[in-house]
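Predict structure. Chain length: 455.
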Amino acid sequence: MTAVMAIAWMGNSVLAQESGNPAPVKRNYFVTTNNVTAPDQLENVPDSVRSTGLVEVQKPKDFISRNFKYYSMCDWYPGMRFMCVPTKEDFVVKTFADARTGNMVSSRVLAKKVLVYDTHSDKAGGLHEQVFFHLEDDPSVSYYFEVPMGTFDDYCYGKGGVPTLAYLGDVDMAQDSLVGKQVRVLERLYYQDSEAAGSGIIPVDIGDEKRGRIMTITKVGVGTRNYPVKIIFQESGKDGFKGQEYFQYVTISHTNCAIRDEDFVRSDLKPHTFKGSFQLLADKMAVSPELQKWKGKEVYTFFNTKMHDAKEQEVEISRLSTFTILDLYKMDDSNMVVLTLKGKKSGNEYTKEVSATNTRVYGKEELLDELFVEGNPEKMEGVRAANMALIKKQQVKRGFTEAEVRLALGEPTEVKKLTANTYQWIYQFKDDVNRDFRAVKFSYSTKKVIQDMTR
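Prediction complete.
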């Protein structure tokens, strides 16, 4: 395509606006957390959010994947909107040239301006092709990025993209679909805007007590080239309390993002993906028939755990507490499942996130079939109400039945015959005083405990 044809593309864009098509929605892309008044420093980006490369498109399994489409440069179409958000390095190496003069333009001139993609074209008499854009505020002003090597077709399939440009399609979609939505925060380290910091932002460790809590997305704006979506979220509490706001720069569709797939396994980069930092509560996915069978079941907790109550406050739940599972669903394509439970005695509702498989991904997840056991311990044959207080404390005394020992300690590691009249249940474990062995001796005739030994 020639340079003249490129101008024709731009002309068509202008004519489309003049022919009565609605003008773009006026949006606010510069948002800040509620602890500052007016910082506005897009070029100040933490080193941890810079890298190179591109990410391949994900399969459309959930809300995020369905609504945030990845476009390689080969698939760009006229009208795609980007914002120039240069970093300090971009002020040294100029990215764009003025289409009228061919002179390189400082990134400071284009910083925070919206550039609309038009087309790409052969450079007359040159070795490289050009990628054309025009200013959204003044379509008569156009710029081009010169492909550094080979043809456009060769370059667009690679990892380069156009430096300095943050894809606004993701920002627009996030503003329209995510503001007001509740998310569970998955990380400890986020950011706040700061008028005092030289970079304009400060990292904030929210601590383990806030990690995993449900918070609300309050604002969405533009971030960086690699992570174009700035998501601001706010903690909330009972009685309408609104707490601190925090933000994270994330990439969602990865369009023009300079991050390679293999880089996302790094602990400092994973949080800058949407799914690395947030779990969208509105994006429920159906569970498999194997998990669906838990719905409606009466279950009890086999060990102490934590759940969230109706006010999203984290509460302690003691072992052998009994619930009915009202509902369960997956949040995304991970193995984590959220249960909605109703206490059998209190009638209160709770939510609990567990792993639906027998494999711990991060090492800390509670497993569904380890935490919950089907049934009601107070209605079990061989379990006496008088012994429940000791059983809940995992204590065993002389005269306990097999059912009571099993409820207190679980299934034994080994069953061993001692004499013609006695046998032993052996447990191997680690506890808080470094004991690692427990043996409970039973009588064959009565099937009751005659001795409990721990070392």
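Summary: The mean pLDDT is 82.
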